[in-house]
Amino acid sequence: MKPRPPAGASSSSASAVPAMLRPHLARLTSFLIVFAVGYSLGLLSSSTRPSPRPSQTTLTRPHAAHLTDASSAVPASNATGASASATASYPRSPPHDLFRFREECGEPLPKDAVIPTLLDKLFDGESPYAGFPPAHTAALLHPASARPRGWGSTGAVFAELIESVRPAVIVELGAFLGASALHMAAVSRNLSLSPAILCIDDFRGWPAFRDRFRRDVPPQRHGDALLLPQFMANVAAAGGDGDGDAAARVLPLPFSTASALAALCGWGVYADLIEVDAGHDFHSAWADINLAWAVLRPGGVMFGHDYFTSADDRGVRRAVTLFARVKGLTVRPHGQHWVLSPKPPRRQGTAGAR
Ligand SMILES: C[S@@+](CC[C@H](N)C(=O)[O-])C[C@H]1O[C@@H](n2cnc3c(N)ncnc32)[C@H](O)[C@@H]1O
Questions:
Q1: I want to staple 237 with a disulfide (CB 3.0 to 4.6 A). Which of 144, 161, 291, 294 is the partner?
Q2: What pLDDT was estimated at residue 154?
Q3: Of all protein residues, whose CA lies closest to atom 16 belonging to ligand 1?
Q4: Could you report the average pLDDT of every consecutive run of 10 residues in the chain (354 residues)?
Q5: CB 90 within 8 A of CB 59
Q6: H/E run at residue 337
Q7: Are 262 and 291 in contact (CB under 8 A)?
Q8: Are 169 and 142 a contacting pair, CB within 8 Å?
C-alpha cells in the first residue's frame, strides 16, 4: 500500500515546498516578482550598442624615459603582434626636438653680408629685380603702385619702432603686395637708415582671396596668383619714384614662413625688428612667432598686426598672449598692432646672436 500523500499535495505547488519554507512562501514569492521586474527593466534601459572592443593598437603609457628620448622606444623586433608594434612605432609623445621650437641658430652673419648671402643662396647671386619685369609678365600685372593695398600697413607703430630700434635688418612675415614693406622702407629712408627688409611670403594669398581684392591683384594665370611679380613691380616702382634703393634693400623671400625662417636660422641671419602678419589662425601665428623669435637679435623687437581687428580672435591675439606668458614678456597693444617687449640678452655661455 502506497503511503498517503499529505492533504492537497497532488494539486497545489505549495505542497511541494518544504514544510519549513511554507510560512515564508508569500514573502519569497514577492521577492522573486520584484527581482524579475527589476531585472527586466534594467535590461530594457541599458544601451543596445555593443560595448567597445579593446583597440587592436592600444598605446600603452611609456616609461618616463620614453617621453624624453625617442631612441628608447621598444624596437619592433622585441614586440609581439600588431598592438606591440604600434606601441613601438608611435610613442605617445613626439620627441622633444620635434615639438619644441628651435631657439639656437647659426653663428651670426655680419649685417652687411646678409643681402649678398641671400642673393647667392636664393637667386644665383643676381638681384631678382634685374631686368624685371619681362614684357610677358608686365602684360599680366596691374599698373605698379607705390601705395598698394594693405591692412594697417602705415600705422604709427612702424615709424615708432624703426626710430627706436634703428634696425639694420627687418624681417617681415606676410608681405602681400608690399604695402607695409614699402612704408618701412620710406620711414627708414626719412631717418637716414637703409635696413635690409626681408619679406617672407609664399605669395599665394589664401583661398578665394581674389574675390575681395579683384581691383588690387592681377588675375591668376594657370593657378599662379601672380602676387610675387606684382609685389616686385610695386617695389621697383617705389624705387623709381625716388625711394632710391628700395629694390636693392626690399628682398622677397618667396617661401613658406616656416621654411624661410628655418633657413635664416641655419644661415645665421638675424633681424633687429620682426613684423608678423602672415597666417592669422592660432597655429600659424603660434608657429610664426616661435620660429621668428629664434632669429630675433637680443634687444630686438617683434610686433605684428591684428591684435584689435576682426581677425584678431581667430588666434593671433591668443598666440601672442600665450607666447608672452611663456617667455615672461609684456604685450603692448598699439592701435591694431601688438608689440612685445624687447628680446632679453642671451645668458652667458650660449651660442647665437649677440
Ligand atoms: C595680411 S597679408 C600681409 C599684408 C602686409 N603685411 C601688408 O600690410 O601689406 C598676409 C600674407 O601672408 C601670406 N602668408 C600667409 N600664410 C603664409 C605662410 N604660411 N607662409 C608664407 N606666407 C604666408 C599671404 O600670402 C599674404 O600675402
A1: 144
A2: 85
A3: 279
A4: 38 52 69 62 44 38 38 40 56 73 93 96 95 93 81 90 98 96 94 96 92 86 94 86 65 98 98 97 96 98 87 84 96 94 82 53
A5: yes
A6: strand 337-340
A7: yes
A8: no
pLDDT at residue 164 in the model = 98
Supply 314's cell numbers. 581667430
Question: In this predicted structure, what is the pLDDT of residue 62?
Answer: 40
Distances (CA, A) of 204 to 104, 200, 208, 220: 30, 12, 10, 10
pLDDT given at position 243: 47
Q: Compute the distance between CA of residue 334 and CA of residue 309 in angstroms, rounded to an integer.
A: 12
Cα 310 to the center of its chain, rounded Å: 19
DSSP letters, 79-148, are: --HHHHHHHHHS-SS--HHHHSPP---PPPPPGGGHHHHHHHHHHTTS-TTTTPSPHHHHTTSPPP-SS-
Three-state secondary-structure class, residue 283? helix
Ligand 1 near 185 CB (within 6 A): no
Counting atoms of ligand 1 from 1, which one is nearest the CA of 172? Answer: 6
Please indicate whether residue 174, judged by its CB atom, sits closer than 6 Å to ligand 1.
yes
Ligand 1 lined by 209 (C-beta under 6 Å)? no
Whole-angstrom distance, CA of residue 118 vs CA of residue 128 = 11
Assigned C-alpha cell, 164: 627706436
- H helix or E strand, kind and range, residue 87: helix 81-89
Please report the pLDDT score of residue 152 as a whole number: 81
Identify the helix (H) or strand (E) that includes residue 304: strand 296-304
C-alpha cell at 253: 623671400
- The identity of residue 213, as a single letter, is F
Ligand 1: residue of 206, 216, 217, 227 to mutate (most ligand atoms within 8 A of CB) is 206
**C-alpha–C-alpha distance, residues 258 and 262, integer Å:** 6
β strands within 122-255, DSSP E: 169-173, 196-200, 250-253
Q: 199 CB less than 6 Å from ligand 1?
A: no
Nearest to residue 216, comparing CAs of 262, 150, 296, 171? 150
Q: What is the pLDDT of residue 112?
A: 94
The reply to whether ligand 1 has any atom less than 6 angstroms from the CB of 180 is yes
278 Cα to the center of ligand 1, angstroms: 4
Cα separation of 210 and 225, whole Å?
Answer: 9
Neighbours of 110 (CB within 10 A): 9
Cell of 121: 643662396
